[in-house]
Every structure is written in structure tokens, then in C-alpha cells.
Records
---
Amino acid sequence: MTPAAEKDPGRAGWVFGAVTVIPALLAVAWLLPAFPLLLGGRLTAQPMVFMFAPLAAALCYFALRQLPGAWPSFREASQTPEATRKPTRKRASKPATQWWALAATVAVAIAFTVWQLAERTEQIIYLRDPATYLQVAYWIAHHGLLPIPDNAVAFGGPHPGLSFASSNYYPRGTGIVPQFMTGAPLVLAAGFWLHGISGALLVTPVIGGCAVLSFGGLAGRLAGPGWAPAAAAVLALSLPEQYTSRGSFSEPLAQVLLFGGLCLLADSLVIGRNTGRKLDWPGQDKVLAALAGLALGLTILVRIDGLSDILPAVPFLGVLLAARRRQAVPFGAALVVGVGYGLADGYLKSRPYLDLEAPSLRPLGYIVAITVVATAAGIAITASQKARSTARRLLETRTARYLPAVAAALTAIIFIGFAVRPLVQTVAGETNPTSIAYVAELQKLAGLPVNGHRQYYEDSLYWVIWYLGVPAVLLGAFGLAVLAKRTTRALLTWKDPTAAARVWALPLMMAIWAVVTVLYRPAVAPDQPWASRRLVPFVLPGLILGGIWAAAWLKGQAAQLGRTRATAILIASCCAASMLIPTALTTLDISVTKTNGVDAHGMAFRKIGTGEITAVAKLCRSIPPGSSVVILDQLTADRFAQVVRGMCNTPTAILSHPGALSTVVQGIEKTGRRPVLLAENKDELPGTPKQVVDLLTTQEAHNLTAPPTRTWLIHYTVWMSTPSPALSA
């Protein structure tokens, strides 16, 4: 331990704890008032600032006024006679945080943020989800409400074949309901208020950097602060993390809430044990627990899949209640509030999306209900002294003693099962004909044999191996298995003197649960890097946490066996390198040639959607004021309908029956507006069309059997014409 750490062992720890939870606190402070304002149709910049600023200050004050300076390690000291005679050789259960660990973790997060800002995407034309999030954010930032009005009156009322729906936008009544939850667009709206579209494109890379910082904080709490920089670096180098942080994805924001919530929960569980005196704020553990529950619950407002991610919080809460921990009630109440926000958003603002995802959400709903009922039953059973005594006798039987080993074995079997899954062709495939047709099209593009039933889900563990490497997966599986054994033992014996088991319990359950549910059925188009986004919230982070803890454990074992300090450091360095190097090689795709020397060809330095901002600006300038736009083909409608409706501020509809064109044009002219027609090809348009979009840019790759190393080209074309009076006559 350095002299500085000996002099003030808690100051570096407090700063480390504070900076790694502030992003989650700010996200909570923004989402809490933003969603009610959106529900009321009054989301604008001024009330948001007036509500966010004091709320953020209050949350940060109450959370940071007292934090732990150190956290318990989950590495048992040696029990050899020599170790017993020389207790000074045992590893401290609460290693102090040193300033270098804090500085290195922050440096990794800053470097990642700068990197992603430099390589950020410009996906504003719809191709996949990022453009949808961005367009919805643009709309609510400028109009403050959802759903989006269809503005049928601008077309002279309804007409046969005239619709307002496009990909990811569903008609409902007189409005258009966008797909997905509104949490991410609510945060992206701040970027539009600050600096327009350019400002909004900077938001997600910054959120991604905050996610890396918070993850380092979580790893430091669970494996030791000295391991935080390595954990943050592995996550930052992983291609899925970079891919989702460069575009307007929801996953980085969900990570901030998940990691920050788990950090706050860990703090609440150990703060009363971390000092030799009473807390300056006796209720601080309850405050931290409440903020943790709120952050975890609000992940559903960002991603509906967050309901699955945080499901292990239910049995964890049950254990807290059964143990009569002070944190149980505030954690559970705040968790319910956060989940309530998400469910309200789903039913009030994203109901068509929930209906679309019903085949997946219905089984999840049953699982949630069963988990809640089983947890409630367990709490009720253990409420009486007689029941607790009976349970204690059962846990002391010979059979119960094997349960920790069984937990470890089951964890290992999970990974073995996913590893051999491709050999037995166990496919948990989609039954959606549209999805199957899409995969068949991808197989054609990739030059692979077309199999109309395969979804490539059986390769899901190998997706993880592509992005983290075999050593990281092996270390992660080993770490999670050992942790499962130790946590189960602590639960069965009801002994956790250092609080290490309770700190690890929820992250461990979430990691194993995410591995099982996501890898069994990713429920995403299986092309890479698109499918890798499903690994981002907690599959990759969970394995990294397990691997980092395993590395710390191996280093500790070397020290306890009497090896030199140099040996322990060498083991730690090799473990960290085995996780960092394969991750970096996939992301960078480094090659060495005589001509260019060392060169990086991978996705790490590949931009997506370059030129889209300029192309959309040109399109908007080409549309005359006072126009009503009619799009004549579905592909152009999917890509540009909301772009024109939102960013060009022009009423837009799609016509599926060309024979009704003259009727629609007449209806537009009767309203005093000017009809404008758009299509992908000029042959589809009457009169003398002119090309208003001609953009050759890049998109993400669509690899099915290997990680991506290149971007693909895509060509956007749009032609425009203004019908002559003869057409409407």
C-alpha cells in the first residue's frame, strides 16, 4: 500500500465511488421529470432544465454525502497453519482504493469517449433502430408530445390506399406511434436542444463513455479497485460496446442505469461496515438502496428487455426481506416506481410495439409473475420462527451441503451446453416469417447456402468468443462458477461476515440469467455486428466481471502460496492480457505487410452513414414551403417518411395504389397546399422528376459466420416531382 493510501485510505475510495455513480444519478434525474412531461405533451427545454437541475443536485447530494471508502473482497484467505501463524500475510478483506486506479479508470473512459466521438455515425436515414431513436428524439424535442399526428387534413382527408405507416411507425387513431421505448429519445432530445442534429449525435458516445466509467466502478467494487481499469479497458475495446456507442442505440444508456444501480446497491450494503464509527447520516444505506432500485427499475423505460435483465432483483429483494435488512423496503419500493415508469411508457406510448413483441413478452410476463409469487411465498414461509427453524435443519442435512458444488457445476454446464450446441444443431429459432425471409436474404448476400429455417442462434456463445476471445470466456465461466459456489454457501449457512456475498449476489444472478436467456434465444437478426447489441447490456459485462474476479483470485492464490510479489504480478498481467489482446484483435483487425507495416483494418476506425446529414438537408431544401409529400414506393417510405415529416417539417403520407394518385393530388390542392411526390426511381413519377438525394455511403456489415471487419456500401436515391395541374384535372 502506498504512503498516500495509508495516510488517507478513504478519500480515493470516496472519489472513486462518487464519479462512477454520478452518470446513473444524472440519468435518473433526467428521466424522472421527462417522462411525465412527455405524457402531458409539454416536454420542452425550459421546464426540463428547471426540473432537472435541482433534482440532479439533490440526488447527487444525498447519494454522495457519505460513501464507502472500500469494499469487501470475495477471496478467502489461506487456512494453512503457516497462514494462521502469520496473519499479516492474509489479504485484507477491504483493500483500499489507490489514486492510480481512479485515474486509470477515468482515463480509459475519457479515451473511449473521445474515440467514439471521432468515429460517430450519422445514421439519420432509416435503416435500422438508431435512426428511429434519433427521429423520435427530434420530434419530441421540437413538439414535446407523442404520438406523432398523421395530419391527414393536409391531404384533404383520408383516401383509399393512402396511409401514414412506415417501418417502425404504426398508425393508431389519428396518430403515428413509433416503435421502442421512449427513454433513449428523451435523453437524445437534450442534444437537439443544445446543438441540433450535430449535438444529438454526440450524446450516445458520451453516454457510452459514462457506461465504461460506471462499469469500472462496478468491477472495482466486486473484484478490487486495482482491477477497475482493466475491466473498463476490456469493455471499451470490445466491438459491440463501440458499435452501440457510436450510433443512437439504447443499450449504452441501459448500461449506465444497470451498472450505476448495482454500484449504489453495493455501497448501500457495505457502508455501515466500512467505518470504525457510526454513520454521519444514519439513513444513508436506505437512501443508497432507494436510488439503486430506482436506477435499475428505470432500465425498462429505456429497453423493454430490461424487464428480463433486472428480474433477478426480485428473488434478491426476497432474501433482503427475509433477512430483515434495512435496505430491503427502500430498494423494493424504488424498484417498483422505476418499473412502473417503464410499464406506463409501454402501455401508453409504445403499445403497438408491445403488441408486436407479444410472442416474446408473454412468456417473460409469465416468468416474472411466477418469480414474484414464488418470492412472496418464500418470504411468507420464512416469516415464522418455526418455519425458519425447520429450514435451518434442512439446510444442515448432508444433502444440502452439496448444493454449493451443484451451483458451481450447473454454471459450468451452462457454458458447456452452449459450446456444444452447434454440434447438435439445437436451434431456438424464430417463427416469424418476416424474420426468416430476412435471414434468407442475408444468406444470399453473404454467398451462403440458403436455409429457410436457420437463425444462427446456436452460435450465440461463439459470438461472445469472437468479441472477447476464448481466454476471457474461460476465465469468466470459471469465475462465475466459483462465485456461484461461494454465494450459495453463504446463503445456505446464512453467514456473510464481510458482506462480500450480498454485494456479489445480484450482479452474479444477473450475469448468469443474462447468459442463459440471451444466448438461448437472442431474438435478433443474426448478422454481425447487429446481433452483438444483444450482448451489450449484461452478457459481455457479466463475463468480464467473472473473468476479472477470477484473475484477482488467481493472483491472490499465488500470493497466499508464498510466491513472490513478482510472480503474483506476472499472473495478474497475463490474465489481463489474455482478456485485452483477443478483444483488441477483433476490433482492430491488425495486419502486418511489407508495404504499409502495421495497419488496423477493423471496425474500430470505420464510420457509418457519412454524408447523411448533408443529404437530408438538401432534401428538405428541395421541398417547397406549404407542401404535402406523397411517397409512391414502400422502400423510400420506410427510409424517408419520418425524415420528411419530422426534420423537413412537412406532412407526409404513403400511397400504395398509384391509380388513386390524381384523387390524392386533388385533395391536397383543395386544402391550398402543394403536392410533392417522392420515389426511389424517376420512372415511378409523372412529369419531369429531379433527383434530390444521391448518396453513396456506408452501413454496418451483415456477416453471419464471422465477426465484421469492414463496412458495406449502401446507395440512397430519391427523385421528386411536382404534379402538373393536368394530373389533378
Note: The first helix runs from residue 3 to 7.
---
Amino acid sequence: MKRPWHIWLSYGLSLVVALTAMGWLTVSTLRVERSEAAARTGAQLDARIRLALWRMDTRLTPLVAQEMARPYTAFVAFSLPPGVKGERADTAGSLWPLLSQPSEYVLLNFEAGADERWRSPQVPDPKSWQVAAANGATITGIETSAERLDKLRGEVNFQQLVERLPQGTLPTPPLPTDATVALGDDMHEFWQQVQQSGGPAPQQQTANDDLARRQRALTSNNQKEFVQQRANSAVPMPSVDVAEGASRAMWIGEQLVLARRVMAGGQLVVQGCWLDWEKLERDLRTEVADVLPEFEFMRVNGLHDVDSTHVLATLPLALTAQAGAPTGGEWTPLRVALVLAWAGLALAASAIALLLTGVVALSARREAFVSAVTHELRTPLTTFRMYAGMLEDGMVASESDRRSYLHTLRVEAERLSHLVENVLSYARLERGPRTAARERFTVGALLERMQPRLSPRAAEADMRVVVQADATALAALLCTDPMAIEQIVFNLVDNACKYASAAEPRTIELQVVVDGGQLKLRVRDHGPGIATHDRRRLFRPFSKSAEQAATSAPGVGLGLALCRRLARQLGGELDYEPLPSGGASFCLALPIHTSTR
């Protein structure tokens, strides 16, 4: 067999390789799982953003379309008086709706010319304020609108607006005979989805399709509003040629405006409205609070520097939100499998380590046993060969010497027989428990049976066995294997003869007492006893090496291990009892037979 360190080195290297592979597999698996979790979280966030965009654009589309479709003539406080054509006046006529009924999300409607002259339908000529107040407007409202107009004029100029608006203008489409507008089939389907669920399910379309459809919805509503507002207007169109451009929402500084170019009589003006962004933001956040509770609006003036899939179709805004890190404490099936795999690897490594420990220890003990047995056999075999040769050759002439030689041969033969008996008995126990030949007998009968074997062994060491037992102990009944008990007691007496050979007094005490339901046989000598550091391996098999066998009493370190195994097979126990006065004491406890059958 290889040396132990070779075995443990191979095991350690194999374990390192297994742990490294398992660690790499675990890290890679968790990395993939985190990537998939992050992808799922990102996809869920993207779906919530797209649904929020649908809801916001659904909420904003009517407002924006209405403001984009305002006719050119809407940007005056009063309708044109009868008989006035081609001119604009704020002095008489009907009160215009933008003055009496402004939109809740519009701070101010305005018109700016190239001469930086700014006007607003909410701010009539001061001479007309009383007329306006008498027709439903409020002086406070007009004053507030005038302040807003001054503020807007100070923060936004005509040139900024013109530069940001599309260059061309669109000719005014002809008015139909009625105000009915037929939406396309796709827009009709879109509005049905909006009315039923607040927008189509995000997972059914790509994000780019969502943006295109929301833009088409805005265009369709703009056309509808354009036709309806002009068809319902009682104010005749001016006699001058008017061409209205496409409206665009944009950020000018901190202000959100919706404006368009208008060519009227060869003059370029900008018409539009100043939107109340604070109110819009508050209401939009409320609209999507259940879908997207935490997000930020990002102001955009083009799609080149922002993800177009997160942009509103109605206003120059994009939504940004953090997906958040996936939770790490969830016991996913994959993580449970990894934990079980690690547990299995740990159990396998522990089992292999225990197995190797046992194999190495057993190998070492067997090697020590073989060495000890070899040493134990060498002396008697040498004696046999030498004495047998001398007797055979007639070299021993004296009868007394011959008797002495024969006695020595008999003693050595008995020692070998005892050694072989112990080894064979232990081998039988190693193969598995065997059914003992149980007999019923008294303790007195057992002692009488063992006496012829114990006394000669003690006499060989110039010692004697002293039995100490009272009548109760001698009458105790046992039902067990008497040969096993005899082998145990003989081994204990044999050990006392070997290890206490120089003791004084030269007696071996065999104490027999009844303690409760047990019979206790104690074998005690008056020798040096057993050192504390040697007690933990007293009952280990093959515990004596060749060196120990050479320097200590004869034996291979198997007797006590065999005795304990035999005692437990009989249902009892064998223990060592340290004595404060010196010597060694072993106690064999056996159950007493109480049945009368």
C-alpha cells in the first residue's frame, strides 16, 4: 500500500479540482441567473414604461390635438363685428371661448409677430375689459393673463420660436360639408383599445410600433379637431390668404410651449399656447402611479439623443426609470439545486475522507499487527526449532533437563495457541455477529469451570488467583456462552500475569458481586497500572507495534479489543476502572438471568 501522505495528497488534489470546478460552475450559473433576472426586470420595466406612455398619450392627445387645431381666428378676444372683413378687432362682437373658457392645462394662448408684438386672446385691449367682464370673463383672470404674457415675452422671443418650428407651412384643408370625420380602421381599433384598457398590451407590439401608433392617433385627432372647430365656428375666415404650419411642442428655457407658423396676408406670425407643465406633470404622475410609481421626465428636443421607444408622442418628453437590482435572497429552484449539489459534494468529500481515514488507520494497524505477530512468532518458533533439534540429536542427557525443555516447549505452544485463538476469534467477530451457544449455569459453576485454566497460568508467572465472592454472587444464574466468558476472563488474567509480573503482593483478585440486575466480575492486579495517555487506545485492535512488542510484555494488542467485542455480543460491557492505590482493574458486567423457565 502507498504511504499515507501519498494517499492524502492525491485526495487533496482531487478535492481541490472538484471544489474548483464546482465553484466555477456555481459562479457561472449564478452570473447567468443574475443576467436573466436583470433581463427579466428590464423587460418588465420596459413594459411598464410603454404602458405608462400609452396612458399619458391617451390623456394628452385630446388636449394637444385641440390646441394644435385652433383656427387662425381663435387668437382674438372677440369675434369680428358685423361688416368688418379682413381685419382683426377687439372692440366689439361676441366673447371668444379662449377668453371665457380657457383650457385647464394652458397658461396662455399667444400670437407673436416678427416685430416682437405679442398678443393673447386672454388679454383684450384695456378699453374692452369691462365689456369682457360683462360677458363672462373676470378682471382678475385678464390681469393674470397680462402678467403671464409679459413674463412669456421676457423669456421667449419670436426668433427662438421660428428657428425651432418646421420651415414650411401647410395649406388650410377645405372644410367638408359636415363635421363628421371617419377615422382609419387602425385608429378606430386603437381608440377601442384605449377606451377598454387604457392602451393595448405592451407585450403584443414592439416599442417602435407603439410610438408610431401613438403618433398616428395624435395626427388623426388633430385632423378631427381641425375639421370640427372650423365647422362649428360662427366666425368667417378672413379674406386674406392663410396657411397654417404644423404645430410642434418644444421647450424654450423652462417653458413648455406648443406653437406653429402661420402665413397670413404674406406676414409670418407664430401662434400657440403656453402649457402649464407643473399641473400636467402632477396629473400625469397620478395617471400612471399604479404602473410606474417612480420615474423621471427627461426633456428632449429631438430623438437623436434619447431612446425613441420611451418618448411621448404628444410632448417632447421621455421617461426614465431605474430597474433596480433583483433581490438576492430568493430561493430559486436553481439556487436550491446548487445548495443540494454543494451539500452532496461536502457529504461525498466527508465520506471519502472518513473512508480513507479508516483505511489508512486499518492499514497501519494491520501492518503493526503483522509486525507484532511476526515478532511474537519468531521467539517461540526459534525455541521450538532449537530445543527440538537438541532433543532429537540427544544433546540433552539429563532427564531433568529434558523435562525442563519439554515444559518450555509446552508453555510456548500454549502461548502460540492462545495467540491463534484470539486472532481467530476476532476474525470471526469481524465477519459478523454469530449466535452464541447459550447455557444456563450459576456463577459458582462458572468459576469452578475456569479455575483449572486460570490457576496454571498464574502459577507460570509465580502468581496466584484469589476469588472473592459471597454466597449471593455464587448463586446468581446466568444464561449465556460460558466459553466466551472464560476467554474474556482468561485474557484479563493473562494480561495481569504479563504486565504485573513484578507486583507485590503477587496476587490477582477476581471479585464477583451482584449489582442490581447485573453480575460484575472484576480482575484486579497490583502492578503499575495503565498510564493516562495509553487508556484511550486500550480497546483498539492491533494497537501494539513491533517496537512496543519488543520492549513490553508479549502480545499483539488484540486481547482487550476482543474481550470488549465478546462482552458486547453477550449483552454486557467491559470497562477499565482506574485505581487510586495503583494497579489495573477491568470490570466485566453481564446481565443476570431472572426467568424461572
Note: DSSP finds 16 helices and 16 strands in the chain.
